[in-house]
Structure to design on (321 residues):
């Protein structure tokens, strides 16, 4: 068996926020002891309902948000303890594509300047000609005519702006792209085009991507492996095909059951109450999913199940799976 080359290893990441409600302080465990790895050339999808901690994971990896504890090893070096010079280096290697390309583009900067921005900051262009050539090449890679370099964000459609958002992440070539809900703000037909573009880029450039989305249908289209999050916890991880054909965690089964077009063959017997996740202000004991789970036992109400490995590299955090 070939050993996969790992680009990023996340170990025991924790992040707690303090929030106030009705005059009281509460701790919200946004990310609760999450570990996974990202392999070179793959798209790892992270999926889960809103508030489950997906964005916080992405933001801690690029140090927009500080982690409470844990390690994030990029090619073996811990991002969380890097000095400023090494951090600059990391910012070249790990790049972000955001949900709202309009908000992340400066309205007064031309598209060409926006695409070249990271390269400019890090002084990677030898001269103006090389800069112009690389901007033109990158715009072509994302399916835009090089003449778009002269335009401004307000002259572009939503789909074109997200193509620019992707171009910004591609120049200079990154090792890892973190795409946080990159198609959620787009119309469905445009979503498909942008997903196809990301898939093509992955094939052509061997891109490695952490793809964050609340939409399992979207994650299913693009991901090689999928990590399922629930209330700050990683509850299941498997290759995409295996996960959708045979979901093991009752929460994954619920998610798949709520996407009718996916061909899910396995359903939990007796049905599952869709319901809502408990309030993040409630301190839960045991499995975070136990009060929505039809197969919960007394053990699930008192002991949080740890992620354990089953056959075929699948991991699941459930006492009964
Ligand atoms: N800066 C913050 N201060 C307080 N609480 C926060 C902060 N950022 C996130 N949270 C809380 O942490 C939890 C996880 O949020 P996060 O944005 O990571 O979830 P998500 O799965 O990405 O959801 P969404 O898709 O809605 O962004 C939520 O309960 C959120 O309210």
């Amino acid at each position: 068996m070939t050993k996969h080359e790992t680009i990023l290893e996340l170990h025991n990441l924790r992040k707690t926020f303090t929030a106030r409600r009705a005059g009281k302080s509460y701790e919200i465990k946004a990310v609760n002891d999450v570990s996974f790895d990202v392999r070179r050339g793959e798209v790892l999808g992270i999926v889960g309902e809103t508030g489950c901690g997906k964005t916080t994971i992405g933001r801690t990896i690029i140090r927009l948000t500080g982690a409470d504890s844990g390690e994030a090893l990029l090619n073996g070096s811990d991002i969380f303890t890097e000095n400023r010079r090494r951090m600059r280096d990391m910012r070249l290697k790990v790049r972000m594509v955001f949900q709202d390309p309009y908000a992340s583009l400066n309205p007064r900067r031309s598209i060409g300047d926006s695409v070249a921005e990271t390269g400019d900051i890090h002084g990677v262009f030898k001269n103006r000609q090389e800069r112009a050539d690389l901007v033109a090449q990158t715009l072509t890679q994302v399916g835009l005519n090089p003449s778009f370099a002269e335009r401004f964000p307000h002259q572009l459609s939503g789909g074109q702006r997200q193509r620019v958002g992707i171009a910004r992440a591609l120049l200079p070539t990154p090792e890892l792209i973190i795409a946080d809900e990159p198609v959620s703000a787009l119309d469905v037909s445009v979503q498909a085009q942008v997903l196809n573009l990301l898939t093509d880029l992955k094939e052509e450039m061997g891109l490695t991507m952490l793809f964050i989305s609340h939409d399992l249908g979207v994650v299913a289209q693009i991901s090689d492996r999928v990590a399922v999050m629930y209330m700050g916890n990683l509850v299941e991880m498997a290759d995409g095909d295996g996960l959708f054909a045979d979901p093991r965690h009752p929460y994954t089964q619920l998610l798949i059951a709520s996407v009718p077009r996916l061909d899910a063959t396995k359903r939990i017997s007796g049905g599952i109450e869709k319901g809502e996740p408990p309030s993040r202000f409630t301190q839960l004991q045991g499995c975070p999913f136990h009060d929505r789970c039809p197969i919960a036992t007394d053990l699930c109400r008192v002991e949080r199940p740890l992620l354990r490995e089953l056959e075929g590299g699948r991991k699941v955090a459930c006492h009964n799976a």
Remarks:
- Residues 188-205 form the longest helix (18 residues).
- The radius of gyration is 21 Å.
- Residues 262-273 have pLDDT under 50 and may be disordered.
